[in-house]
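User: Fold this; tokens only.

Assistant: Input:
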Amino acid sequence: MTVPYTLTRLGVVMTPEPGNELESEGVLNPASGHTPDGALYLLPRLVAPGNISRVGLARVSLTDGVPVGVEREGVVLAPDEGWERGLNNAGVEDPRVTWIPSLDKHVMTYVAYGPLGPKPALAVSDDLRTWTRLGPLHFEYQADLDTDLNLFPNKDTVFFPEPVPGPDGEPSYAMLHRPMWDLGWFREGEGVHLPAGVTDDRPGIWVSFVPVAEVERGLENLVHLRHHRLVAMSEHPFEELKIGAGPAPLRVPEGWLVIHHGVTGEQPKGFDPTTQKVSYAAGALLLSFDDVTKVLDRTAEPILVPETEEERIGTVGNVVFPTAIEEVDGVHYVFYGMADAKIGVARLDRLA
């Protein structure tokens, strides 16, 4: 099997609004969704001075069905909770939104940049405008890993759009995520702590599950994840430093299509993106319908690399960072961050 999908860039759909301080350091890495009236929206990360991020709402303008721009409708999530702020930092960052029909909800995973660095969190909405926080994600203790996943920074979290078989055979909601094992940023000299059975310290893509029955008992149980499994590590040159999931997995004839990012270059310790000398490219994985921990195939070469001026020059140069995928008139469009400063769109095509 191969991964018969390509991305074709179409252009820029959102740039920082002149004079808008909330966006003065960039608009990037959007989530997306359709409101009940069928309109397509982006939920971009808006970066204000001091690297303080909020989640905005912007209606996508279409020309002949193709996304070409946006109309802003304000901010829908800000770092208002104590656990989303530190003494010298704050932010709700890099949202991913999955519409889950069985819940009749938009489910947003996002990074809360709080006192202990980046931690994943969850909010839900009926209409993309009003969001209810369910709180920080909690990874249940799993003895065979010989560690507590809650200790570690975590990013690139996104839910599958429908229940899948869990490792215990129970129908489950599944979430991809990307733990980071180096605790030296937090405690001098502490260094890397790997889970049992993991020998590669590069951040990779994991999956965790919540049984459907638990969520039916209470939506708040969606934050209590279990059965943690490693899905994919870096394998190819464009993924040399790390990989992480992008948009919500898309059901395609071959399996679950996961568009991901791969990183190469030099990455100093810490979380300041402006110190990195890296390149972010996009690749794709195919996961099994029957077992989402099983990679059926993956792209050995990237399907989108930084080439245009907007992708090569910005807050962090040489970055294409896909985070959202939506269908318009039978065509799938992928929205992505460009150099941590702007938002682009590409068309997803299946090869004949």
